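Look at a sample.

——
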Amino acid sequence: MEAPVTFGDRLKDWNRVFNWTMVHRRDSDIFAPYGSFARRTSKYDTHVPPFVWTSKEKMAAWFVSNCDAQSRRQEYVRLLQRDVHVDIYGSCGNMTCPKSSSSNCLYQLHKKYRYYLAFENSLCEDYITEKAMGIYQEGIDVIPVVRGSGDRYSMFLPPNSYISTQDFSIEKLAETMESLTNSEEEFEKYFAWRQYYYAEETDLRFCDLCKKLHNAYKLEQLYESITDWLVDHPDHRNCKEPTDIDDELPD
């Protein structure tokens, strides 16, 4: 479930060993995302808890422990902080919220903040983790600001429910966040998706694996090089270097 850049090289000698893959990639043999959504099927199944606006006096929060990520997210946040106040929790910041108090951390996020920075540690194909998915699954009243696999977010998350750094320069992102903060009506539009979709609690990956095992003889295959597929395929590079930071740095 980790990004390929963190472990892919360890598999370089494991050629002609793996038959199936079960990871976050959509082209995996068993698709294993961190979460999924389903459409509400009944017009009576549309209850949405009231959105809490008045008590949200803080701008953005970020929970992070890996301070030297491939995505260079730490540098990105430092540049964003020129215009937007971000409370950083964990070893990369000066605020604390221990994992043993995760429910309290989520409550504080739900009650006090307007945005949550859901920045991935690696910019890899289809790699969208619990950093984003957890906000939807827990029903937290914040807008996720996502940074990861670019336009892939539209394939995984409900429409008009998040802000992607892919769509803005850092300065324009800050302006957009400030603008939404000043308009309760525009801000609440990011939660309209709840009337039509819900975050699924069931993990279906093992159901898919079980189905394939019952028909394994029809699905025989062998990966010549698992690292080619997972990390550095000749036709595409699975994980990309960030291109949105250097242009923002002062000369």
Observations:
- Residues 50-199 form a domain with the Rossmann fold fold (CATH 3.40.50.11660).
- Strands lie at 37-39, 58-63, 86-89, 113-119, 143-147, 163-164, 197-199, 232-233, 236-237.
- The mean pLDDT is 87.
